[in-house]
């Protein structure tokens, strides 16, 4: 279905008027809530992947049951947990790739983000898919048409996976994780894999236009054919290596992986001398720049521009 971005007010009013059963069919963009101590105006704290998990005793915050607190990232205040983005699948979920793996989904974080959302705090629950480059497609032929189809097929799998998780309401974020590993673990972005073999490289070198067609296929399917809103997750170095430094994005939300690995937590898109580094021609002032994973590895912390997401004209 083709549709423009619904406003926060219209979605929120409609969703809260629905019964619980009907609401399960609707993906809520955002909740509302109070200001968050220690955070900047219009910004929210969150996490993604396996860890960390919000809790009632996040030092130095006082213990409580609900609302759940953001895991300790700052000594300047006690913010409520506002957003969780869980991994619902990826390249390893596709039998054709010959890969294996499990999703970085934390049921406790997902549940507690929804507890807060139902209490009128934060943005609830989002999802992301670990992307497979065109080189993992057994039908790879080096054309943008094939790569577009491959990206759209992944998007269909991702949307179905996201909808299968047991929550009556979800935020509308569905991210496409575009990144590189080490050695031959480039996830098919820069090399063609032997059919059905996750690791072994058949040949190197994939045109940047073909990689971009894969990402665009995912993005366009999610935007046009699902209730979700697509988000590209990447870092500037990974994006430039895969897509080329001249490849820009103008109509897709961005989630930047730029790890400052320090505390206290950010109050906006800057933190103790470290600013969020977006990619594809964008910086923190662009309307499409909405998420920053500022700490990663064992613990993935995120900074989220709540106001920009509710009012942005990025997607269209």
The total strand number stands at 12
Return the domain count.
1
Strand content: 15-25%
Largest sheet: 8 strands, mixed, barrel
Report how far apart the termini are. 13 Å
Please compute the radius of gyration using only Cα atoms. Answer: 19 Å
What count of helical segments does DSSP give? 7
Give me the side-by-side strand order of the main sheet. Answer: 1-2-3-4-7-8-11-12
Structural class label = alpha/beta
Subunit organisation of the chains: single chain
Helix/strand order: HHEEHEHEEEHEHEEEEEH
Supply the CATH architecture.
Alpha-Beta Barrel
Q: What is the CATH superfamily classification? A: Glycosidases
CATH class: Alpha Beta
- The CATH topology corresponds to TIM Barrel
What structural keywords apply?
eight-stranded mixed barrel; TIM Barrel; about 20% strand; disordered N terminus; two-stranded antiparallel sheet; 7 helices; about 325 residues; alpha/beta; single chain
Structure description:
The structure is a single chain. The protein has 316 residues and is of the alpha/beta class. The protein has helices at 8-17, 20-23, 107-118, 144-164, 208-225, 236-243, 306-311; strands spanning 43-48, 83-90, 124-130, 173-177, 191-193, 201-204, 229-234, 253-257, 270-271, 274-275, 289-295, 301-305. It has an eight-stranded mixed beta barrel, surrounded by four helices. The chain has seven helices and twelve strands. The chain has a single domain (8-311), classed as Alpha-Beta Barrel (TIM Barrel).
